[in-house]
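Hey, resending since the last one bounced:
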Amino acid sequence: MSDTSEPRRLPPEQRREEILSAAVQLFCEKGYEGTTIKDIARAIGVTEGLLYHYFSGKADLIAECWRRRSWHTRACAIVEQAGDRPFGEVVSDLVRDHLDSLYSNGPAFRMHAAEMLRDGELASFSQQYIHETRKLIASYLRGLQARARIRPDADPEVVADLIIGSSTFQFVVHGRLPRDEWDALVSHAAEEFSRLLVRSLATNSPTAS
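The structure tokens again:
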């Protein structure tokens, strides 16, 4: 006998999150092209019609997955609250938080990275968020330069790339470590990277012009 029971009722936001979680899991397992709306609806026991009530289709789903799991909002909060805190502390927070975000959303990140190689539209959408985060950090660095807190000859965009890229590299290489080992790596990597960056960008650095 087929199951004709009604799907359990959930608050709209909780339902959206349930759909997104199922979509990420299936996109990771079967790929974006190999996953259908029917697959996602079946995975959480709802009708396709109900799923379309929340999302217009797979493209809308994968875009929302990126928006929800993007690091941009968290990076904004760190930069906006930086104030007069030491540069090294802010860099350490950015690296730690980025690594934590990547690890916590590992399946979604890996899925997006793989799909970006196959889907130009998705790649463009994802790069928009990355570019906005890069601009945010670069703007923060320019503010430090204006206050003579870091070297005026440093390129803020390149430094922002280093901050974002170093975290991404650590996750790509070590992101499948057990949680306790990962936490230890994050602590060491954030401290070491911030120390090196502060030393190289100090206004009294011997390499400064």
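The chain has a mean pLDDT of 86.

Sorry for the duplicate.
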